[in-house]
Amino acid sequence: MHFLSNALLILITHMNKQKFLPGALVALLFTISCTKQTVNKAEEPPATTPDTINVTIPVEVKDTITAGDNNNLLLGNPTNALPNSAYPNNYLINQTYYAEAYSRDRGIPVWVSWHLQASDVGTASRQDDFRPYTGLPSGWYQVGASSYNGSASGFDRGHNCPSGDRTSTTAANSTTFYMTNMIPQAAYLNQGPWEGLEDYIRNTLVSTSGEAYIIMGNYGSGGLGRNHTDTVSTLDEGRVAVPKKVWKIAVILPAGNNDLNRITESTTILAVNMPNYDNLYSTNSAGKSAWQNYTTTINDLEADAKLYGVNLDLLSNLNATVKAALKKKKYN
């Protein structure tokens, strides 16, 4: 089953080159497809040297099929990641409840992508079962629950796909606690504006009548932990990178079907890009809404990431005209 899900994920991530599908493949995809449910800004730290780990975009796999509604990669695969260990720093993992591109050498994801709707939010409790992901290729280091040593480092185990977005079942929530879904995130960033942003998307923009396609990622090297005065570039004896920037985009729609065709130039889009520096943030009420000071456009986000060696192509599955319009929009 793991092989099948990864094989399908390869196909799902590459779109629009062919208009017709073999009948057997169509039937298989139909069988497994998803079913629709209904403060002021602190001065940003100066840029430093680019990442030494660059994302390599493979080009030999051609687009084949179109993803269905609610697929975690419906908007596209931002770095053309593949579930192939030949691409260790752009390695695609299908975690069922989210998809991610993982970097072996950085020990953190490049990005994580997921779909959110009302039925994803239920009564399952927070599992807190932080643990290594044992499905990585043989020989790869598995980041552990204690690798960040948060009490000393000042960095939280910061979720990409949030626990709160996956409370429909215990299994769904537990999957968000794989360490491959974490980054070392400055404690007050994680507990302040980032938590506020997660809550705003889930409870205000989506709530009971909307849905969202969300991608979170990071880039750069060096962050500032809680109660520290010097930046740190790695944890766990150099095996886990501490990113400099943390970003998120969300495309918001009213609940419905045929999502890709419903996204237009007027669709709501939210993008933020925030320094991973604890001293910029607080966890009080104003601090939780301070993400609003860091809204940006996708064009600006992609341009900044490129300065650090990360080439992102967000919203790659959208119509070219719609994509261009949305990438220029800033949420307000």
Automatic annotation (TrEMBL):
Protein's recorded name: Endonuclease G
For this protein, the record's SMART domains field holds: Endonuclease_NS (SM00892), NUC (SM00477)
- List the active-site residues: 159
| ENPP1-3/EXOG-like endonuclease/phosphodiesterase domain residues | 95-321
Q: Which UniProt keywords apply?
A: Endonuclease, Hydrolase, Metal-binding, Nuclease
Q: Where is the DNA/RNA non-specific endonuclease/pyrophosphatase/phosphodiesterase domain?
A: 94-321
Give the GO molecular function terms. Answer: endonuclease activity; hydrolase activity; metal ion binding; nucleic acid binding
- The question of whether Nuclease is a record keyword is answered with yes
Q: Which PANTHER family match?
A: ENDONUCLEASE G, MITOCHONDRIAL (PTHR13966:SF5), ENDONUCLEASE RELATED (PTHR13966)
Coiled-coil spans are none
> So where does Mg(2+) get bound?
190
